[in-house]
Amino acid sequence: MEASQSSSSSVTPMSSPNPNESSTTTTTTTTTTTTNGNSILSSTPVWPTIDGPLGLSEDESVTYARRFYKFGYALLPWLWAINCFYFWPVLRHSRSFPRLRPYVFGSAVGFAVFSTLLSSWALTFAIGGQYLFGPVWDQLVMYNVADRLGLTGWS
C-alpha cells in the first residue's frame, strides 16, 4: 500500500462523509487523525452503528442506546441483544464513543446474564426432568394439564 503512494510526506486536507466529525480530516501517508474524540488510528471512519454513514449521528445514538438499555430491564432483554448488534462498532473499538459505550457494554453484560439464566433453566427441565424433581415433576410440567382438568375426550 505504501509503494503505491507518493513519496512526499505532505499533509493534504480531505473531506469525509462522516457526520460525526467536527472539522476536516488531515491525512499523511500512514495515519488519519480525526478531531471528534475517537482515538482509533485507521484510514476508515468509525461509525457508532453498523449502518455506517446511513445510520444515526453520535448524539442520536446515545439516545437510542440509552432507551434500549433501560427498556431491557423492563423484562425485554432481547432489546439488549438488538442494542449490541446495532452498536457493534462501539463494542468492537473499546476507546471509541465514550458516551455510548456504558449503555452498549451494559446491554452486552445484561444479555449474557439473561442468556445464561434462560439456558440453565431450560436445560434443567430438559435434562433433569422427572429424575431431578421426583414426584413434584407432575405438577411442574404443562403437557398433562388437559388430562388433569378433564379436557380430553379419551380419559
What would you say this structure looks like, in words?
The structure is a single chain. The chain is mostly helical. Helices cover 46% and strands 5% of the residues. It has six helices and three strands; from the N terminus they run βββαααααα. A three-stranded antiparallel β-sheet has the order 1-2-3, with no helix packed on it. It starts with 11 loop residues before the first strand and ends in a 6-residue tail after the last helix.
Helix-strand category = mainly alpha
Order of helices and strands: EEEHHHHHH
Give the low-confidence spans: 1-10, 23-34
How many alpha or pi helices?
A: 6
Radius of gyration: 26 Å
Mean pLDDT equals: 76
Q: In one word, what is the shape?
A: elongated
Distance between the termini: 78 Å
Number of strands: 3
Q: Helical amount among residues, as a percent range?
A: 40-55%
Beta-strand content estimate: 5-15%
Could you give a short account of the major beta sheet? 3 strands, antiparallel
- Output the strand order for the largest sheet: 1-2-3
